[in-house]
Design goal:
By secondary structure, the chain is of the alpha+beta class. 42% of the residues lie in helices and 26% in strands. The chain has a five-stranded mixed beta sheet with strand order 3-2-1-4-5. The chain is globular.
């Protein structure tokens, strides 16, 4: 398992302190996937209501608040497949 994925799971957990009542998957191209749900964040490739795919560098920028999720999507750096409403809710968590 990648150290990058473990670090990303920890960082996401810290951002989701108020909980997340849906399921979302982040696919980090070439590394693997993280799934967020009401139980927390785990390194796995389970099904989710929305899947967001990005390069690891883009994901790091999103977590650090250096890149706006909407801008990343509009510029093609982030792809979204599934429930767009959940993706927007997740974007608000990342922006906080």
């Amino acid at each position: 398992m990648s150290d990058i994925l473990e670090q990303a799971a920890t960082a996401l957990s810290e951002k989701l302190t108020d909980g997340f009542d849906a399921s979302a998957k982040f696919v980090l191209t070439g590394l693997g996937a993280l799934v967020l749900n009401s139980e927390g964040v785990s390194v796995c490739d389970d099904e989710a209501e929305v899947t967001l795919t990005a390069d690891p560098e883009v994901f790091q920028e999103l977590l650090a608040g250096e890149l706006n999720p909407t801008s990343a999507f509009m510029s093609g750096k982030l792809s979204i497949d599934g429930d767009m409403g959940i993706a927007m809710k997740l974007a608000s968590f990342l922006a906080s």
